Structures are given as C-alpha cells and as structure tokens.
Amino acid sequence: MAQRKSAGPPGEPRRVAYLYLLPAFLVYAAFLLYPLVRSIQISLYDWNGNTLATWAGLDNYAEVVTDPALRSSFGHALVLVFFYAVLPLVIGLGLASILNRARVRGLAFFRTVIFLPQVVAMVVIGVAWRRMYAPDGSVNDLLRAVGLDSLARGWLGDYAAALPAVGFIGTWFEIGLVTVLLLAGMGQISGELYEAARLDGAGPVREFFAVTLPSVRGEMAVALTLTVIAALRTFDLVYITTRGGPGLSTSVPSFEVYNRAFQQGRVGSAAAVAVVLTLIIFLISVGITRVADRDSR
Amino acid sequence: MRVSRAERTANYVILVGFAMFALYPVLTILAAALGPDDTGRATSSVLGLHPGNFSIAWNVGHFSSYLATSVLVSTTVVVVSVVFSILSGFALGTMRFRGSTLLFYAFLVGIMMPSEAIVVPLYYDLRTLGLTDTLWAVVLPQIAQSVAFGTFWMRAYFRTSSRSLVEAARLDGASTRRILWSVLVPLARPAIVTLTVLVFMWTWNEFLIPLVMVTSESLRTAPLGLAFFQGQYTQGFTLLAAGACIVATPVVLVYLFLQRHFIAGMLEGAVRE
Known about the structure:
The complex is a heterodimer of chains A (297) and B (273). Chain A has 297 residues and is an all-alpha fold. Chain A has helices at 16-42, 59-66, 68-101, 107-115, 122-133, 138-145, 162-186, 191-199, 204-215, 217-233, 236-241, 253-262, 267-296; strands spanning 45-46, 54-55. Chain A is built from 13 helices and 2 strands, in the order H-E-E-H-H-H-H-H-H-H-H-H-H-H-H. In chain A, helix 12 packs antiparallel against helix 13 (267-296). The two termini of chain A are 14 Å apart. Chain B has 273 residues and is an all-alpha fold. Chain B has a domain at 66-222 and 250-268: MetI-like fold (Orthogonal Bundle), CATH 1.10.3720.10. In chain B, 77% of the residues lie in helices and 0% in strands. In chain B, helix 3 (63-94) packs across helix 9 (189-205). The chains are: A mainly alpha (297), B mainly alpha (273). At the A-B interface, helix 1, helix 3, helix 4, helix 5 and helix 7 of A face helix 1, helix 3, helix 4, helix 5 and helix 6 of B.
C-alpha cells in the first residue's frame, strides 16, 4: 500500500500517538504476537508439555507431510473448502441474481432470515444438526418421505458419509453470508448495462454471464476469502458433531492441533500443524485479496 | 425490471424454500425445547408448550452459571477492547509518527490469524504463570484478538471522516484528548456500535479458548457449558435443546435489533472470521 504524502494523516508528527497506542499494543503484543512467535519456537522441539523439551529441528514439519493422519486431515480440510466455499458461492450467485432481477417483496425479511445462521454459536448449530443427522432424525425422515429409504443412515457415524455431512452444515452456514455479500455487489450494477444486454436480445442466462458475473468479481473474491478461511479453521463444529470420527474420517487440522497439544501430549507437533495452517491461511488471504485488487483497478 | 408472472412465482418458491432451509435447524431446536420432555419427565404445559424445560435447564443444567460467566467475559472483552481500539485507531488514523505503517501491519497480522495459531503456547505459558483456569486466561487473549480488528476498524473510520474537523478543532485550541472524546467519538457512534456488536458476538460464541483454558465448571462460558452438557446428558434431547436456545438467544436478539450493523461489519471489515 504505497501512500502519497498528501494521503497520510494530517498534522505534524506527534509523539503522543505512542501513548494512545500503548494499551492496545501491550495486550496485543503479550497475548497475540508473543504467543505466535512462541508457536514457531515450540514447533521446533519435541515436547510432551511437562518434561524437558528436546530439539527436533524441522522434524515436526516433515511429519505434517509424511504422517498419514495429518495428511488426511489436510485432505479433509480441502473437502470442507468445497462445501464451505464452492457450493455456497454457486448457490449464492443463483439466489442473489434472482433477488436482484425480480424486485421481490419481503427482501429485507429474506435477508434477515438467510443471514441468521452466521450469528448463531457454532456449538448450537452442531447440537441442532447432530439431532437432524441422527438415525431417527429429520434428514432420514425426509429421505424416507421421498422414497429414498436406502440412503437413510446414521450420517455422522458412517465412515463415508460423515465428512460430507459435516461439510454440508458448512454449506448451510455460509449460503447466507455469500448471498448477502453478492446481493450488495449486484445492487451497484448500473441498470443501463442490463438495458443494453436486453436490447441485444440477451435472455436471463446470457445476461447473468455477460453482465452480472463480471461485475461482482470483487465480491466473489471477498466471499471466497471468508468462506475458505472458515473451512480451514473448522474446529467447533467437528468437536461437537464427530470429534474427528468415526475413526479419523472427519479429523481436520485445527482438531489435530487440539488433540495433539491437549490430549496426546505431542505439543511440538501440534504447534507445527498450527504454524502450517496459519501460513496457508495468510497466503490465501493475501492471494485472494491481490486478485480482487487487480480486478477492481 | 420486467419479469414474467411465471418467473416471479418460481422465484418466490425458491426464496421461500431457502428461507425455510436456513430456519429449519433453528426451529428444530426451538420446537424441541418447547415440546414435552422426551425422557418422560412431567412438565406443566401452557397452550401445548412446555416452557418449564427452560427453567429445568437453567437450574439443573447449570445454564444460569454458564450464562453469568459469559456475560462477565463478554462485557469485559467488549468494554476494554472497544476503548483500546478507539485510542489506537485514533492514533493510527489521524496522527503522523515514526513506525505507524509497521504498527498497522503488526495489527493486521492479528486479524487474519486463527486462534489455533496461539492457543498452544498460550496455554502452556499461562499455566507456568498460574493463570490457567482463571477468567484472565479467557479474557486477555480475546481482548488481544478483538483489539487487532478494532484498531483496523476504527483507524479506517477516523482516516476517512475527520481531517478538516480535526484541523478546525485544533485551530480552536482543543487538546488532542478533547478532539477525540468530544468531537470524533460522538460522530463515530455508528462505527463504534458495529464494532461493539461484532466483538460481543465473537466473544460470546468463542469456543476454543475457553475450552482450552478452563477446567472448573464454574468458569465455563455458555457455549462450553452446552458442549459439556451434550457429552454428559445423553438421554433425550429436550433439555439439550432448551440449553441450546439459552446459549443462542442473546446474540440472536441483538442481531434482530441491530442487524444492519452485523451485516455491514461482517461484510466490510470481517477479514477476521
């Protein structure tokens, strides 16, 4: 962010600024920056949390790549990215363009309702969906009602179905955020663009691909950043619904951090997983923001 | 925009469908919480509803204690981090000084960073200091995280809004402190309200930090209490649902009244979540 001189804050250079910054910076440095550095330090040791730590170099990082349990946890995170980010984006694009095209009544109400999942504690969401996924829960009731009895199962206890079932909760959770975000972007598209497209004889589908989609690329990038990060950070939901099971079928990196650091006494390895996860999240945030910046210029 | 009647009808069907999909899990819990107890415990019914489930969860499930802890934790985190953020955002947004860019980027790191990145050393270092299993261990890390976002948020506001105003006040001889508290803060109220509701929501819903830091039951926050309740109380769903309603209600209520702030804040500034 290169700033020209005139774009900077006004006034003469002021020492008093440090005084204003001090309280925030002290807490921030002590409880966020310092632990972040300590994470990196701990990740270079073999440590069970109690006895003396031994130097391990990059062994813990090598383990992230070689350990099948860790590798699969990152694989699961990738599956969650599909459910948290890709699916909601596709659905959100559809919903938002419907809302934007036809000025429907009750838009404010719809927006309130569809955004609601975002403010409900993940633990509560987990409790609700666990009930719905139970063998006698409403998901199976629905399947039986439409004649798909063979699909009914205990979703969260099934090796093949548990991960997509958890992911689908993420889809439910993120649709509202993505839709509202895209809707805001589409509201700013000038009506003339649509008029022009219509004069060229474009139908709703052509109109969507020629006008709507290119205009909301910035919003799509923001939506992807938020949802991809949410997918990679998934912890609460897995803790509440499956605890990583059955077996390791829904274990994700955040859960491995918790499990290794506080259940298995493999603190160094946990820190290494945390550092790798954080790096991936940083790279994705910076990367997607860059792409969005280039688009908007 | 002209749209045919058939398309309009189809659109309404789709929208109602998605609205029901979004609400269904929430309503499942609400219905179960208000329904007859599924373990056969007798509760009095009012118009076919059983509000008594809430008082059982409140007392037997200890949700009164969990809620009290959550109120204490959220209030502390919100008040402290909003005040600190106003101060630091003011400095970064309106003053010129050495290292301001570097400090800004330092705070930016905290916005993107997940709790997982710090929770491991935080636990072991705070344990060395004897601070684990106290509210300090729950509150301080969350203030640090909120201050990162808050500084970013208030700086953006102070930068765009106030240059000529600050100059004018300064020419009138107002002190820096007065400029901030009597001129800028009253104008910044919408931005401050948005920051307040977001920090409240994040703190109320936070799960990992209390899970790691707290072992005593008396210090459990509402979401943590619910998670443990789910593990212990495995017969029936009624009380669990009532507990879930109690945990979710405060944020949902604030959302219904101030939804504009939630939506604007999460869309414009929420790189953090």
